[in-house]
Write a structure and sequence with these properties.
By secondary structure, the chain is α/β, with parallel strands linked by helices. The protein has seven helices and six strands; from the N terminus they run αβαβαβαβααβαβ. The chain is 34% helix and 15% strand.
């Protein structure tokens, strides 16, 4: 794969938002290169990691890319809005988890599901049938020692040339951060949970 592009025009504009308006283009088109595919990481303790990933899914669908989403925490019982819409748009959607760890009645079973989800994800990435694969909330089973982050990083780094991958979740493993092209950390300033307000359907899921 070729080297990824430098900072995007949008990022350059954002970086200069607090200064004077630009009167010259902050980059030269001839200096930019193209990447066959990219690895994106959405991490941090703020809201929006999965939401941002699903926004990228919509862009990919609009380009008629084959897209797959594997969710590592949410089970098929969640019935989220994003799953309903994306399935209707032709996205292959796999809810491979069984909910939050504190809700699990058998953590050994939860671990086994996460391991099976990773083996499935590994094959899905390697099969080269999708232009975008989202590994949603995969950071958690890595943090818990259920999935080897070295294996995840190697699989993603050695993916087929045209396969883009997005990985989401808090405290993303450093091994994955190191091989990613784009890493965004969502920082919490305020959240309804701070005032004991529960997640709202249509906003949070």
């Amino acid at each position: 794969m070729t080297n990824p592009e430098p900072n995007s025009p949008e990022q350059n504009v954002a970086d200069s938002a607090d200064s004077e308006p630009l009167d010259e283009r902050p980059y030269q088109q001839a200096e930019l290169s193209s990447a066959d595919s990219l690895v994106l990481v959405n991490t941090g303790h703020g809201k929006g990691k999965s939401t941002a990933a699903f926004g990228t899914v919509l862009r990919a669908v609009a380009l008629e890319w084959p897209v797959a989403v594997i969710q590592y925490l949410k089970s098929g019982n969640w019935n989220t809005g994003e799953e309903k819409v994306c399935r209707g748009l032709g996205v292959e959607w796999f809810s491979a988890g069984d909910g939050f760890s504190w809700e699990s009645s058998d953590l050994d079973e939860s671990q086994a599901k996460a391991v099976a989800a990773w083996e499935f994800s590994r094959r899905l990435v390697a099969d080269d049938q999708h232009r975008l694969v989202v590994l949603d909330e995969i950071s958690y089973p890595m943090s818990w020692g259920w999935i080897d982050p070295v294996d995840v990083a190697a699989t993603v780094a050695n993916r087929p040339a045209k396969v883009n991958v997005i990985l989401t979740g808090r405290d993303m493993a450093q091994e994955v951060v190191d091989i990613a092209d784009t890493v965004t950390e969502m920082v919490k300033v305020k959240h309804p949970f701070d005032n004991q307000v529960r997640a709202k359907k249509g906003i949070d899921f």
